[in-house]
């Protein structure tokens, strides 16, 4: 079940501004990694308790209107393929431009629900300016101001009506495993190695896509759904381009999964695009198993694996309590081990710690190392409970939840991880007043 909103439109209409507004509540937890500026292309938001994702398909092309139609076409294709609903942003101050017409033309051919957000309606004088956009024929138009937020609530009220209500009801209730990673890390090769077919034949025709294929894997005692990353364009002229779009392309597969097999190319190490994909899995609280693939190509001595592993853990921090396996789809090294590990991570993700056991262990930890007092006030954690969520989340009930800092939270998470096996699974910790 995925609720994905895509924002499309020509440059400068306010897509990024709207993106930031819709994902506002989550910006605080976006972490900056040294040397890596995270692309603002994927974010999580929530409206009336309904979580959703937003993808900004235009994040890559900034600045002027002087862009190729082909570029816009790619953005719109991604939106049509990956999103449940599309927000087409236009600018009431400039009115309809040629590029707007082109976007509208492409969107009209798709079956996806499209909403026009007429942006920059910052004040009442500008109401009414948006009526010219009715000529696009998409129905109701939402006057908004992405900078001051007016009208965005009405837009969200409408958008949430069009999310998947009960998708995948006909799917069997078995673990869902997505194979993700940037292009050429070996995703298709892994899937072929598992299913023993050449299912994902890569054609040489530029721009060829393949559809998302979900395959039930049922052998050697394993039974799960394999979720393939949909139609990554293999042959693109612009290298960065394809990597950027591959991140957006991963969103749906990740959101529909329980555990992600996150593949890296051993000869390249971990790069920015890899991390972007990893963060999407983490933000969605999915289980993760890291495969350092093409290990057959690495010249090794007795220290190579350990050093490589340490480096990757450093890059993935703070969420680095994850299994890391060194694989080859060519020599079939550790392919079976991969599946065993995926299943262990799946079990970790649905693990429930009894409240009594949790309190017994954690109260002792807390007694030995209580939260630091703030302004002379002592913080008392009274009891702890695992919440009935899909992925592990713990509530610490206390007198002054607002005074507990990030480092103490991290400390508690680490102690939880030491006492119970949550390898491969993000953990959430909440402090609640009691
Ligand atoms: P993008 O290229 O479509 O992502 O557009 P941006 O979000 O970068 O916005 C382009 C310009 O329009 C920036 O200078 C924004 O500050 C401005 N802008 C965005 N939303 C609004 C709005 O609601 N009102 C006004 N007046 N300006 C806006
Ligand atoms: P995808 O884009 O992630 O699906 O990657 P592919 O499965 O298409 O693999 C990209 C290229 O890497 C192909 O030429 C594969 O033959 C090669 N490849 C994949 N896995 C391995 C591996 O474990 N070892 C080596 N040496 N090559 C691999």
UniProtKB/TrEMBL annotation:
<dbReference type="InterPro" id="IPR003593">
    <property type="entry name" value="AAA+_ATPase"/>
</dbReference>
<comment type="subunit">
    <text>Associates with the 50S ribosomal subunit.</text>
</comment>
<feature type="binding site">
    <location>
        <begin position="293"/>
        <end position="296"/>
    </location>
    <ligand>
        <name>GTP 2</name>
    </ligand>
</feature>
<dbReference type="InterPro" id="IPR016484">
    <property type="entry name" value="GTPase_Der"/>
</dbReference>
<dbReference type="Pfam" id="PF14714">
    <property type="entry name" value="KH_dom-like"/>
</dbReference>
<keyword id="KW-0342">GTP-binding</keyword>
<dbReference type="InterPro" id="IPR032859">
    <property type="entry name" value="KH_dom-like"/>
</dbReference>
<feature type="binding site">
    <location>
        <begin position="119"/>
        <end position="122"/>
    </location>
    <ligand>
        <name>GTP 1</name>
    </ligand>
</feature>
<dbReference type="InterPro" id="IPR005225">
    <property type="entry name" value="Small_GTP-bd"/>
</dbReference>
<dbReference type="InterPro" id="IPR027417">
    <property type="entry name" value="P-loop_NTPase"/>
</dbReference>
<comment type="function">
    <text>GTPase that plays an essential role in the late steps of ribosome biogenesis.</text>
</comment>
<dbReference type="InterPro" id="IPR015946">
    <property type="entry name" value="KH_dom-like_a/b"/>
</dbReference>
<dbReference type="Pfam" id="PF01926">
    <property type="entry name" value="MMR_HSR1"/>
</dbReference>
<keyword id="KW-0547">Nucleotide-binding</keyword>
<protein>
    <recommendedName>
        <fullName>GTPase Der</fullName>
    </recommendedName>
</protein>
<feature type="binding site">
    <location>
        <begin position="9"/>
        <end position="16"/>
    </location>
    <ligand>
        <name>GTP 1</name>
    </ligand>
</feature>
<feature type="domain" description="EngA-type G">
    <location>
        <begin position="175"/>
        <end position="350"/>
    </location>
</feature>
<feature type="binding site">
    <location>
        <begin position="228"/>
        <end position="232"/>
    </location>
    <ligand>
        <name>GTP 2</name>
    </ligand>
</feature>
<keyword id="KW-0677">Repeat</keyword>
<keyword id="KW-0690">Ribosome biogenesis</keyword>
<dbReference type="InterPro" id="IPR006073">
    <property type="entry name" value="GTP-bd"/>
</dbReference>
<feature type="binding site">
    <location>
        <begin position="181"/>
        <end position="188"/>
    </location>
    <ligand>
        <name>GTP 2</name>
    </ligand>
</feature>
<feature type="binding site">
    <location>
        <begin position="56"/>
        <end position="60"/>
    </location>
    <ligand>
        <name>GTP 1</name>
    </ligand>
</feature>
<feature type="domain" description="EngA-type G">
    <location>
        <begin position="3"/>
        <end position="167"/>
    </location>
</feature>
<dbReference type="InterPro" id="IPR031166">
    <property type="entry name" value="G_ENGA"/>
</dbReference>
<comment type="similarity">
    <text>Belongs to the TRAFAC class TrmE-Era-EngA-EngB-Septin-like GTPase superfamily. EngA (Der) GTPase family.</text>
</comment>
């Amino acid at each position: 079940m995925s609720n994905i909103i895509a924002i499309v439109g020509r440059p400068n209409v306010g897509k990024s501004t709207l993106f930031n507004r819709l994902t506002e509540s989550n910006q605080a937890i976006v972490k900056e990694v040294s040397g890596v500026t995270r692309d603002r292309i994927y974010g999580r938001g929530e409206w009336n308790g309904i979580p959703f994702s937003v993808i900004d398909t235009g994040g890559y092309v900034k600045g002027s209107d002087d862009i190729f139609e082909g570029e816009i076409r790619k953005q719109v294709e991604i939106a049509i393929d990956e999103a449940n609903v599309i927000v087409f942003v236009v600018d009431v101050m400039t009115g309809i431009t040629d590029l707007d017409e082109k976007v509208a033309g492409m969107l009209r051919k798709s079956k996806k629900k499209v909403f026009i957000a007429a942006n920059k309606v910052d004040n009442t004088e500008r109401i009414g300016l948006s009526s010219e956009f009715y000529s696009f024929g998409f129905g109701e138009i939402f006057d908004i101001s992405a900078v001051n937020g007016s009208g965005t609530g009405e837009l969200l009220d409408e958008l949430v009506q069009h999310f998947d209500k009960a998708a995948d009801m006909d799917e069997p209730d078995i673990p869902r495993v997505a194979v993700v990673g940037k292009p050429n890390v070996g995703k298709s090769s892994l899937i072929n190695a598992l299913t023993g077919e050449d299912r994902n034949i890569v054609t040489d025709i530029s721009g060829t896509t393949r559809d998302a294929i979900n395959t039930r894997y049922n052998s050697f005692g394993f039974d799960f759904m394999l979720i393939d990353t949909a139609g990554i364009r293999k042959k693109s002229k612009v290298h960065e381009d394809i990597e950027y779009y591959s991140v957006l392309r991963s969103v749906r597969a990740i959101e529909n999964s329980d555990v992600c097999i996150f593949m890296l190319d051993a000869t390249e190490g971990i790069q920015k695009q890899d991390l972007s994909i990893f963060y999407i899995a983490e933000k969605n609280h999915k289980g993760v198993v890291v495969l350092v693939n093409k290990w057959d190509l690495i010249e090794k001595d007795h220290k190579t694996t350990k050093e490589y592993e340490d480096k990757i853990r450093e890059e993935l921090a703070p969420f680095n309590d994850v299994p890391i396996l060194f694989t080859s789809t060519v020599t079939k090294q550790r392919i079976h081990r991969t599946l065993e590990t995926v299943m262990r991570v799946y079990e970790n993700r649905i693990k429930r710690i009894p409240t009594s056991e949790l309190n017994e262990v954690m109260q002792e930890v807390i007694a030995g190392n209580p939260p630091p007092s703030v302004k002379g006030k002592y913080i008392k954690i009274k009891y702890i409970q695992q919440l009935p969520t899909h992925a592990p989340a713990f509530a610490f009930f206390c007198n002054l939840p607002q005074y507990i800092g990030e480092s103490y939270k991290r400390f508690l998470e680490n102690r939880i991880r030491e006492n119970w096996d949550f390898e491969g699974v993000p953990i959430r910790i909440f402090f609640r007043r009691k």
